[in-house]
User: What shape does this take?
Amino acid sequence: MVTDGDNDVFKVLYSAVVSSLGDNNVMVILDNHISKPGWCCSNSDGNGFFGDQYFDPDLWITGLTRMASMFNGVPNVVGMSLRNELRGPKQNVNDWYRYMQKGAEAVHSANPDVIVILSGLNYDKDLSFLRNRPVNLTFSRKIVFEVHWYGFTDGQAWKNGNPNQVCGRVVDNMMRISGFLLDQGWPLFMSEFGVDQRGTNVNDNRYLGCFLGVAAELDFDWALWTLVGSYYFRQGVIGMNEYYGVLNSNWRETRNSTFLQQISALQSPFRGPGVSEVHLHKVIFHPSTGLCVLRKSMFEPLRLGPCTQSEAWNYTPQKILSVKGTYFCLQTDELAKPAKLGIICTDSNSKWEAISDSKMHLSSKAPNGTAVCLDIGYNNTIVTSTCKCLSKDNTCDPESQWFKLVNSTRRSSTMTKPSSLISSILNFPAKDFLWKFLGSV
Assistant: This one.
């Protein structure tokens, strides 16, 4: 039995955690995860849908109202997710609208400043019912929909199938049942994704490259499951390891530093409000490394490097990839040779097309007519190789050849041209130049 004293202790502890996060500039989304304490989730745990054994809709709305009121005016509490992973045999569309709309109104009434986040059906994968029947609320401009996507969402499809074909099929399905909301102008939040951080799970490893390509292309916000490396107590086990955790079991080191590199490019938006720093352009993103194609100089080969230093590329209707503001375009030379930049951009070796079901193989034709794909060579140089793993073969790994053309308005640290840099230096008073120079060291 929960007493008023228990509630008072909960409020103090919960508020202290939220306050500490705010002191460290961390924003908080309050997430109503489960009603009966325990590990989440299954179709038969009694927590899945309105009217289940432990899921009383009226009590749920009362709880949402109390939490929204409790954090009204707390600036780092920016949103409330109404319910995690609705599921189970009772789930249905009509009750979803009935109760989710009531819950949204309750939160808004108690706390008009927070974003209201609505989850879908079938473990938060399915929002397809919204395509022709939008929510009917008294407020607008602060509604966000959320979706979850893991490798195991599709069973062992990634391990057992051809990665390109599985990626194409899974992404098409995700866009059909949830991603379409972006096309309708709704914000969509990928509120859970994650992988086995040990790097030995083939299913997760293949899924991750596909996910990162889509996440960069759609530029959606996301939340990772999970930071924690272990649990005090889970499913009857004390100190259980969390292999999806970024931290290891003692919470002192990361399990997989490569993973942090992979997601680093996605930790800042490529475009959107507050990121319209330069005109729209493309970056060439390599999901399996989290890096982008860079040009150090005309005398060095193209390489992968931090996306903060990426070139700005144009991609024309004629399928030419050119460095924005220059006459130089990306070209293939010979098989297994570095890709190069040239100024004669009308031949077939200057045309690049996204092929394969994954739409992440950038393919061109070498001067001898051989079809090639961008690939990664020694020391992260950009080369062209025979296109691989396009179909059928489920033992092949195509990820070195997976590239994604991503729209961006983000300024690169390399976007100041030498001529404009020299001009700006000449126009600075000496003391200002010295200050700026010292500030950049």
In short: The chain has two domains: 7-266, 281-408. The chain has nine helices and 20 strands. The first strand starts at residue 28 and ends at 31.
